[in-house]
Design goal:
This protein is an alpha/beta fold. It is 19% helix and 35% strand. It has 6 helices and 16 strands. The strands form 3 sheets. A 7-stranded antiparallel β-sheet has the order 4-3-7-1-2-6-5. The model has no long low-confidence stretch (mean pLDDT 95). The structure holds flavin-adenine dinucleotide and FE2/S2 (inorganic) cluster. The site of flavin-adenine dinucleotide has 22 residues, from strand 4, strand 6 and helix 2.
Length: 258
């Protein structure tokens, strides 16, 4: 993990409120694994806490970060121009483990979609048979073309304006998509439903949690999630998403307490 000044290469709006930023940060890009994230720091010292953003792609010394503008920090990053410096800590978190099965279903929902792109590319490079299920609110999609390079893409929309009408779980069920190994990132209700369906069908769900964070480095316990077993750090049934996660096998998580 490295604390560095990256250089913004480009900033583009790819859908309403969705920003695609390319940053030159060779040290972090070299180490980054799919499922890991970076902490971006604001220039305004009144906002000290870093903003965690997943690594959407890591290639040739550059990081691709795709984020939704929701508050002060993400609005500030969206205003960056080519050549601007940006303070980054990373790569943070555990990332996805090696996948043993030949068939892998990659699932992303909303702003949980970006990190699944880097994972999909790596899985394709490993010769896996990748099916990608992307859930959007409506036909205002993003990154779909990029995903099509790495596997068969299925889209589900809440309003039925594109693809399967319903959730990603509805699409998986309706189209009989394999849940032997599922890798997913998205909103908590989606992850809970997907984990439950996957476990009921004998599969493994490796899910990435994007809950609120504060320090981003394991020090504040601001990002804990409930687990079934006692964790060695806090000695209670918790895990820190920033350090033990963000990727967990759903079987270790206790959704009934979250
Ligand atoms: C591991 C991880 C990966 C993430 N990856 C992405 C991504 O790739 N793209 C994307 O659009 N968003 C992602 N998020 C959510 C993103 O971190 C928040 O939207 C962002 O921090 C909001 O900052 P803000 O200053 O604009 O909003 P504000 O609401 O002003 O933020 C106030 C504080 O709350 C924290 N906070 C607010 N919302 C979240 C949240 N959902 N998760 C964590 N901290 C939050 C901020 O970091 C900040 O410290 C990720 C979150 C996590 C935990
Ligand atoms: S955000 Fe501080 S411990 Fe995870």
């Amino acid at each position: 993990m490295e604390y560095t000044k990256g250089t913004v290469v480009s900033v583009q709006t790819i859908a309403p409120g969705i920003i695609d930023m390319l940053v030159k940060a060779p040290g972090i890009a070299k180490e980054a694994k799919p499922g890991q994230f970076v902490c971006l720091y604001c220039d305004d010292n009144a906002h000290l806490l870093p903003r965690p953003i997943s690594i959407c792609e890591s290639m040739n010394g550059h990081l691709r970060l795709v984020f939704r503008i929701v508050g002060f920090g993400t609005a500030e990053f969206a205003e960056k121009k080519s050549g601007d410096p940006i303070t980054i800590l990373g790569p943070v978190g555990n990332g996805y483990p090696e996948i043993e099965t030949d068939d892998v279903t990659v699932v992303g929902g909303g702003i949980g979609i970006p990190p699944m792109l880097y994972l999909s590319r790596k899985l394709k490079e490993q010769g896996k048979n990748v099916t990608i299920v992307l859930g959007f609110r409506d036909k205002g999609t993003f990154l779909v073309d990029a995903f099509e390079n790495y596997g068969k893409v299925v889209i589900a929309t809440d309003d039925g304006s594109l693809g399967v009408h319903g959730t990603v779980v509805d699409a998986i069920r309706e189209l009989g998509i394999s849940v032997e190994t599922v890798c997913a990132c998205g909103p908590m209700p989606m992850l809970k439903g997907l984990a439950s369906y996957t476990e009921q069908n004998g599969g493994t769900a490796l899910i990435s949690l994007e809950e609120r964070m504060a320090c981003g480095i394991g020090a504040c316990l601001g990002c804990i999630t409930k687990t079934k077993d006692i964790d060695g750090h806090s000695h209670v049934k918790n895990a820190r998403i920033c350090t033990e996660g963000p990727v967990f096998d759903s079987k270790v998580l206790d959704f009934s307490r979250s």
